[in-house]
Recover the amino acids of this structure.
């Protein structure tokens, strides 16, 4: 550390003071000292200038530098260097400014107008460019419109037109009667040049004209007479003389939004900013000229929509305009000077802000930087240079520009020799690959000399993907140090620009190179570093990345803007990685309110989407499609369509007369689909009687009521309400009429006592009815009912003033209750009236024939309506999204227009049956629809509705059902496990369970795996899994390597989240058994000892049971005896089956074979043979031992059926190399996934000779399939060599297809035995006519290992198909070898073949009994 600190200090001193020659001589072997950065910048830059034709003009520019040679200034016009050597009219001043002696400008010759930029250059150092400046030339004054004679009423406003060139408006002046007109708050000049006269007086009459001066020549307009007229009080319609127009201004400037209105009565003008009333602030926001809005010193917050509202007692008009405030570019972070070495990657950072968003371009030494593979724009504005070379040195400039202006900032790059250490000041802007890991030993001044490492050894690519490669290597043979670090240099083949990546810690000998191009060859070399410096380089290693699916990349620069309330325009650029011709684009759009995605095909790179909903958010994304299919989608962009005037009136307008002078109005907003924007205010218009004149008042957009007071007593008034958005006023409600009271009721005192109170006791309730106080002149706001046992103060209930009865419920039977009733208003409660009642006993129900109305004896007491309400009808459930369903219904008890005018409400209930114990949920609604949210995706729900009005309720309606839409899975696959495949250490098996929240049908999975758990997602290797499979094999992995696995589920809506990474390390070496087998498979067969002397495999059952263990000798004896008994039984059964054949049966099969196969010489077809009834029984007998779950260490069995799919290996090595068999393997893959399979059993280790060969089909996937013979299998057997074995009695019984299968022969020497020679299935006398080779083997002796074979267990056929089934089975069995007898293997004994059908049936029954006994033996514990 002390040594390194000394080096840094010395480097800093060399930066501050030039190192002396003596110091440099001491370290001449370590390179020259660091060159300091050169100060070089512009002190003055050109600005936009307006020049006058014929006059002089000046564009300023000056640069500063510390170089011995001053900077040379040159100028560019419109991007091209100017040649000013012989130009007498334009020349460069000594400070670098550009001077025009006189500006030339005409209609067809404009040599001076344009964009200028100055460029400063220091030889042998570099160049920098200034900001750009626009030189404009003022044109000749022209009047597009001139003042015309006009008249104005006193107190009103008028506009005198004068429209001149936009660039000459600042030079326009007004004269009245040939005298300069002084402007004021009453007299203002508009941006167009027009003059506004507001609050006119008689002194305003006269002759007006406008002039344009100080632009080389003056010009005046025509004169126009303005007359003033007296105001006679006659109503004049409101109208705009000048409306505000949308305008764009730069931040800090001023703006005038004109709004001039004429009419009588004189209108009041106010401004709205968005939905809020704009308040004036002196000096910044002012209303001038009677209504125009003046805003000074604009800020970004001033941008928005401004509405001018003019209102008088008769009508209201409004107009709006949008103010856009642009902000010139500003640097948030400037690029900084950088020191670097060759092959490094660097980044110049440049963060800018502005409005609109600035565009950024980079310039190196005055020339534009063109993006390439090594010069890239990252993170929007930063410049990344990859694999530096010496020629990259110079000045780099970040130029930012938008409509409001442009700026520039520069930084210098100096590339040092490798033996010169990077200074610590200023800090270099390096990429993450090099920032924290500057190459050790890259040359510090004064570092000790010594040997450097030799080249790293065995550089290999251990993992190759489409965009990354993982390299590993071994330590150099001569490291000359302990803690070595490494640098990897790489480049594309054919490109000399190398890049460098360093290891992250000392001693690490692997690195992952990312961000490579697919299908590209790269060269890699590795260099080691020790404390003495950089060592030798390894030999170059060439590696090609994998090819990528050639689909297009995302379409860049997707933009969307709403043009109208119902349309949006979209545009995008062609994908950078198009990978061929783009055939079409698919535009996906989603209504965010409904969340249902739709798409449209587009052939161009722009599209206008129409028929959209107004004021609605939509999301858009684009997918490019080429001949390989759809590519990568763009990110979603969200656009809200423009608002519009409401298309529907407010709803449910009600009027409540408060007193003789006021009426309360209440309403609901327009339906959501008719609002078309945010409601900013409601306007209420009302009129008295049949008068045509209307009055108007407004409320805020959130206020849904308004008290209209100041009315006349006993007068009829009509009201209607309109909703307003920023766009204007929508339709009004229908006129609604009511009448004020003749006189006001008295509320200065409490109400009188109610005139009557009646009670009717029931068992658990008391019905109370009453009549109002006799004095109707006192306001009654409601009634208070008190009740209790013995006292009326136990419980209190308040009811509305309109109510005349109430039922007190939940009372005790046979109890004495005291009841009190009081009327109340805002002053207080009135005098109570008392009554008492005793509830009926529990056994004394009310007489249903008693009329409550007669019992009360009160003519004013209404009787509760006992009839229930009708339930809602037409209940519908409309699915809107994955979690929302809209429930609608109709109510037959409402009028035809279905308007709710009372206080009824509806209760919606819903539930799902999954899970079965789900609780019912409910919600209340006051309209005829309800939006149910928060539902589960892809779930069926049931809905029903009931209505409640007061104390009356209906029954539940009929149910409606709706299934929510699917959405992407919200959880990842679970229980992810990784295991190594037995005998295949390079192959692993990944297992998992479906996600708990699939949110739809799972259509597939994606397995990601990588050796770096922190790698970017796009750098992981991908393995797709189609369908709902829950296991997958991955092959050809690298040994002794840690891999990480993640799984992602997908459904029709997209991809769900990834599971957590699962770690698995592959074995260090190949399995010893596998290596031995691989070696043995290439050796010729050797004669060996007898079967009993065969070497014992440690994986056999005997080995597992420990035969050599003295403590288990009794168990071994029992096992041997059991196996011997089982062997004898199998031999007897096999012999029995082979002997029970008849000569007549043989003849029938031959005749059937000839008639059905023509020229085929196979035997064994038996269409005439009636199938025995033992098919299904025999299948059940065969499946029993297979379904039984074996114990971990089962007793030795004779059945050579493997117990797991991992124990199943191909029967012959030709299966992997033979293309026909490989094709057959591939054709099985799809059927394997959909065919039910039985659980396989473990392989046996010993058996005796088999009874008869059976039909055996080896499935490459290692599954057992029960199926009839397929067409492929039929053709397979028909192409076998027609030569048969010479044995005359080889015709198998149909039931032989269920026999225990024979084990096929293997080419391994350890599986051969002279005592048990192999018997070929087919004896071939000549070249084979079919490439398939089928082998079989004799049953080995106890303890012999052999390749397991897959057993096909057929399903029981239907009766009509039995004959064909037997024919197919026999045709295969006919080609099998003869059944050997249990006696000497070399001399088979001919067997009798004569049996009648009755005898055959009897023998079948006997056989079934034997099979039951056999099954009992094999399953016995």
């Amino acid at each position: 550390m002390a040594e390194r600190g000394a080096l840094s200090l010395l480097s800093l001193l060399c930066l501050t003071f030039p190192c002396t020659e003596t110091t440099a001589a001491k370290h001449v072997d370590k390179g020259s000292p660091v060159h300091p950065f050169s100060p070089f910048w512009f002190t003055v830059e050109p600005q936009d200038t307006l020049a006058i034709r014929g006059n002089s003009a000046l564009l300023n520019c000056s640069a500063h530098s510390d170089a011995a040679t001053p900077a040379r200034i040159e100028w560019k016009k419109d991007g091209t260097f100017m040649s000013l050597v012989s130009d007498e009219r334009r020349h460069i001043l000594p400070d670098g400014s550009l001077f025009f002696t006189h500006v030339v400008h005409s209609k067809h010759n404009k040599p001076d107008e344009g964009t200028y930029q100055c460029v400063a250059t220091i030889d042998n150092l570099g160049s920098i460019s200034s900001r750009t400046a626009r030189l404009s030339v003022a044109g000749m004054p022209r009047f597009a419109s001139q003042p015309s004679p006009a008249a104005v009423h006193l107190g009103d406003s008028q506009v005198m037109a004068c429209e001149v060139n936009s660039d000459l408006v600042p030079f326009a002046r007004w004269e009245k009667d040939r005298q300069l007109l002084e402007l004021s708050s009453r007299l203002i000049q508009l941006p167009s040049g027009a003059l506004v006269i507001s609050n006119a007086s008689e002194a305003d009459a006269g002759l007006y004209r406008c002039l344009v001066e100080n632009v080389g020549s003056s010009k005046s307009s025509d004169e126009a007479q303005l007359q003033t007229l007296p105001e006679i009080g006659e109503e004049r319609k409101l109208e705009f003389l000048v409306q505000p127009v949308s305008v764009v201004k730069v931040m800090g400037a001023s703006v005038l939004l004109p709004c001039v209105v004429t009419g009588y009565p004189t209108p009041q003008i106010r401004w709205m900013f968005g939905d809020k009333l704009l308040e004036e602030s002196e000096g910044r926001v002012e209303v001038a000229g009677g209504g125009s809005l003046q805003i000074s010193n604009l800020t970004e917050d001033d941008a928005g929509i401004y509405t001018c509202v003019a209102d008088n007692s008769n009508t209201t008009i409004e107009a709006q305009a949008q103010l856009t405030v642009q902000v010139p570019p500003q640097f948030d972070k400037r690029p900084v000077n950088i020191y670097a070495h060759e092959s490094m990657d660097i980044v110049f950072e440049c963060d800018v802000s502005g409005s609109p968003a600035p565009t950024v371009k980079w310039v190196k030494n005055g020339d534009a930087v063109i993006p390439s593979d090594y010069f890239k724009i990252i993170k929007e504005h930063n410049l990344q240079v990859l694999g530096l070379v010496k020629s990259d040195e110079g000045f780099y400039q970040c130029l930012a520009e938008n409509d409001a202006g442009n700026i520039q900032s520069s930084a210098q790059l100096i590339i040092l020799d490798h033996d010169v250490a990077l200074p610590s000041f200023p800090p270099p802007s390096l990429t993450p690959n090099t920032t924290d890991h500057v190459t050790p030993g890259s040359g510090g001044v004064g570092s000790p000399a010594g040997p450097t490492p030799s080249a790293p050894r065995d550089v290999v690519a251990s993992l190759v993907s489409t965009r990354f490669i993982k390299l590993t290597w071994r330590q150099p043979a001569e490291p000359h140090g302990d803690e070595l670090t490494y640098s990897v240099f790489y480049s594309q083949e054919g490109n000399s620009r190398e890049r460098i990546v360093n290891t992250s810690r000392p001693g690490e000998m692997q690195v992952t190179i990312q961000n490579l191009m697919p299908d590209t060859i790269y060269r890699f070399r590795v260099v080691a570093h020790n404390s003495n410096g950089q060592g030798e380089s390894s030999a170059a290693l060439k590696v090609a990345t994998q090819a990528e699916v050639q689909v297009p990349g995302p379409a860049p620069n997707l933009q969307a803007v709403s043009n109208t309330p119902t349309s949006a325009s979209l545009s995008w650029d062609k994908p950078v990685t198009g990978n061929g011709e783009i055939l079409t684009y698919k535009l996906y759009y989603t209504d965010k309110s409904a969340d249902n995605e739709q798409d449209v095909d587009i052939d161009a790179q722009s599209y206008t989407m129409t028929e959209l909903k107004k004021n609605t958010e939509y999301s858009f994304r684009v997918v490019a499609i080429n001949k390989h299919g759809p590519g990568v989608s763009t990110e979603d962009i969200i656009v809200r369509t423009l608002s519009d005037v409401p298309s529907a009136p407010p709803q449910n307008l009600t009027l409540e007369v408060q007193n003789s002078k006021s009426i309360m109005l209440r309403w609901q907003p327009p339906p959501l689909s008719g609002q078309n924007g945010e409601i900013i205010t409601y306007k209420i218009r009302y009129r008295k009687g049949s008068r045509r004149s209307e009055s108007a008042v407004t409320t805020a957009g959130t206020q849904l009521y308004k008290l209209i007071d100041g009315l006349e007593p006993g007068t009829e008034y009509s009201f209607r309400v309109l909703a307003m958005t920023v766009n204007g006023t929508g339709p009004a409600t229908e006129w609604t009429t009511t009448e004020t009271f003749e006189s006001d009721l008295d509320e200065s005192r409490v109400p009188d006592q109610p005139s009557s109170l009646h009670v009717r006791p029931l068992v658990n309730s008391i019905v109370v009815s009453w009549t109002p106080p006799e004095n109707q002149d006192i306001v009654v706001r409601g009634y208070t009912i008190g009740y209790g046992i013995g006292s009326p103060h136990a419980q209190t209930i308040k009811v509305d003033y309109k109510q005349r009865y109430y039922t007190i419920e939940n009372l005790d039977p046979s109890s004495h209750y005291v009841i009190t009733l009081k009327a109340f208003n805002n002053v207080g409660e009135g005098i109570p009236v008392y009554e008492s009642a005793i509830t009926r006993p529990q056994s004394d129900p009310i007489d249903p024939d008693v009329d409550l109305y007669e019992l009360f004896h009160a003519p004013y007491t209404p009787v509760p309506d006992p009839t229930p309400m009708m339930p809602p009808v037409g209940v519908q459930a409309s699915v809107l999204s994955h979690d929302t369903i809209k429930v609608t219904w109709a109510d037959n008890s409402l009028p035809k227009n279905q308007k709710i005018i009372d206080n009824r409400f509806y209760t919606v209930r819903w539930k799902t049956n999954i899970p079965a114990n789900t609780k019912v949920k409910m919600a209340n609604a006051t309209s005829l629809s309800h939006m149910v949210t928060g539902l589960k995706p892809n779930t069926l729900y049931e809905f029903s509705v009931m209505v409640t009005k007061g104390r009356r309720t209906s029954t539940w309606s009929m149910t409606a059902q709706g299934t929510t839409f699917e959405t992407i899975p919200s959880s990842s696959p679970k229980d992810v496990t990784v295991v190594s495949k037995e005998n295949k250490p390079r192959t692993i098996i990944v297992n998992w369970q479906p996600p708990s929240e699939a949110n739809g049908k799972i259509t597939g999975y994606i397995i990601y795996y990588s050796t770096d758990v922190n790698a970017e997602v796009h750098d992981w290797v991908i393995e797709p899994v189609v369908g709902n499979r829950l296991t997958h094999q991955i092959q050809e992995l690298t040994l002794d390597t840690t891999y990480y696995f993640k799984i992602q589920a997908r459904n029709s809506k997209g991809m769900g989240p990834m599971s957590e990474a699962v770690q698995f390390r592959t074995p260090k070496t190949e399995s010893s058994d596998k290596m031995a087998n691989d070696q043995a498979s290439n050796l010729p067969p050797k004669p060996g000892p007898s079967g009993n002397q065969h070497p014992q495999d440690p994986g056999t059952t005997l080995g597992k049971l420990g035969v050599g263990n003295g403590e288990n000798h009794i168990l071994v004896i029992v096992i041997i005896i059991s196996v011997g008994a089982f062997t004898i039984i199998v031999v007897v059964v096999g012999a029995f089956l082979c002997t029970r054949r008849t000569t007549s049966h043989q003849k029938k099969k031959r005749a059937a074979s000839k008639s059905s196969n023509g020229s085929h010489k196979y035997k064994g077809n038996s269409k005439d043979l009636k199938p025995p009834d033992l098919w299904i029984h025999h299948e059940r007998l065969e499946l029993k031992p297979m379904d039984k779950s074996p114990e971990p260490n089962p007793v030795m069995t004779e059945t050579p059926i493997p117990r797991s799919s991992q124990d199943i290996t191909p029967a012959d090595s030709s299966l992997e190399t033979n293309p026909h068999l490989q094709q057959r393997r591939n054709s099985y893959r799809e059927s394997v996934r959909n065919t039910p399979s039985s659980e396989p059993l473990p392989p046996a280790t010993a058996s005796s000779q088999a009874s008869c060969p059976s039909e055996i089909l080896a499935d490459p996937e290692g599954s057992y399939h029960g199926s009839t013979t397929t067409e492929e299998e039929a053709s397979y057997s028909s192409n076998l060599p027609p030569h048969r074995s010479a044995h005359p009695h080889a015709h198998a019984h149909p039931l032989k297809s269920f026999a225990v299968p024979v084990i096929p022969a293997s080419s391994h020497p350890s599986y051969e035995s002279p005592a048990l020679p192999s018997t070929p299935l087919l004896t071939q006398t000549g070249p084979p006519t079919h490439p398939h080779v089928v082998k079989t083997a004799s049953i080995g002796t106890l303890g012999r290992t052999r390749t397991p074979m897959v057993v096909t267990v057929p399903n029981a056929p239907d009766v009509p198909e039995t004959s064909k089934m037997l024919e197919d089975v026999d045709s295969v069995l006919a080609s099998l070898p003869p059944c050997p007898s249990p006696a000497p293997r070399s001399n088979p004994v001919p067997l009798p073949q004569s049996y009648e059908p009755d005898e055959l049936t009897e023998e079948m029954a006997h056989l079934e009994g034997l099979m039951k006994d056999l099954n009992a033996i094999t399953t016995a514990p």
User: Anything to note?
Assistant: The radius of gyration is 49 Å. The mean pLDDT is 75. The first strand starts at residue 40 and ends at 44.
